[in-house]
Design a protein that fits this description.
- Helix content is 33%, strand content 34%.
- The strands form two sheets. Strands 3, 4, 5, 6, 7, 8, 9 and 10 form an eight-stranded antiparallel β-sheet that branches. Strands 1-2-11 form a three-stranded antiparallel β-sheet.
- The protein has a single domain, classed as Protein Transport Mog1p, Chain A (3-Layer(aba) Sandwich).
- The radius of gyration is 16 Å and the shape is globular.
- The protein is built from five helices and eleven strands, in the order ααβββββααβββββαβ.
- Helix 1 crosses helix 4.
- It is an alpha+beta fold.
- Strand 9 and strand 10 form a beta hairpin.
- It comes from Aequorivita soesokkakensis.
- This is PsbP C-terminal domain-containing protein.
């Protein structure tokens, strides 16, 4: 199974993981914030709407700025280095993904497309991140699209602090999307609701 997955997604996913590792090695040592109470932002006042390639739009906190340093394959990249908050979106053709897993015989348990996409992405992340406290939310739809959400704590070699991730996988009409938000685990309580607000704001155009 692992060899089949790697053969399909090898080059693209290597770039993705490398970008995620790099940003933590460069920036986690720069943070001087202390954990605080949960952030409570207003979608109307504290967020801006970002549209990407005429494909989708999301609401991003005003304090996060666009960057191109997080991941070469991401269609959206925003962060705030001082707050240690990061968000990316990776999208790819649903037709090509389904064709690839069918040809490789990966979808042998008749999972839904979004479940297969989630499982493959998580397996690839495990190759570089030591994952613990993994929680998969109940299946849900928003704006008529199937979605899966996974929260976990990760440890990356070379980075002292644990990292808290929230991943949202969305099945659009023609594309699959992975929204990844992360921060240092000691700030998880502060920013979890903000990452959920970002993911819930996703809309295809």
């Amino acid at each position: 199974m692992k060899n089949k997955i790697n053969s399909i997604f090898k080059m693209k996913r290597i770039h993705q993981i490398s970008g995620l590792l790099l940003v933590f090695i460069l920036f986690t040592s720069c943070n001087y914030l202390q954990p605080n109470k949960e952030e409570n932002l207003s979608l109307e006042k504290d967020f801006k709407t970002v549209k990407i390639k005429g494909k989708y739009q999301m609401s991003i906190p005003n304090y996060m700025k666009q960057t191109n340093q997080l991941n070469d394959e991401a269609s959206l990249q925003y962060n705030n280095l001082f707050k240690e908050t990061y968000v990316i979106v990776i999208d790819e053709s649903k037709e090509q993904f389904v064709s690839a897993i069918n040809e490789a015989g990966i979808n042998e348990f008749s999972q839904s497309t979004i479940e297969s996409y989630r499982d493959i992405q998580m397996q690839l992340l495990r190759e570089n991140i030591n994952i613990s406290n993994e929680k998969i939310s109940e299946k849900k739809t928003f704006n008529g699209m199937n979605s899966e959400q996974v929260a976990f704590v990760g440890k990356i070699s070379g980075v002292d602090d644990e990292i808290s991730y929230i991943l949202t996988f969305i099945e659009g009409e023609n594309d699959l999307y992975m929204i990844m938000g992360w921060t240092l685990n000691k700030y998880s309580k502060k920013y979890t609701n903000t990452f959920l607000q970002i993911a819930d704001s996703f809309k295809e155009l």
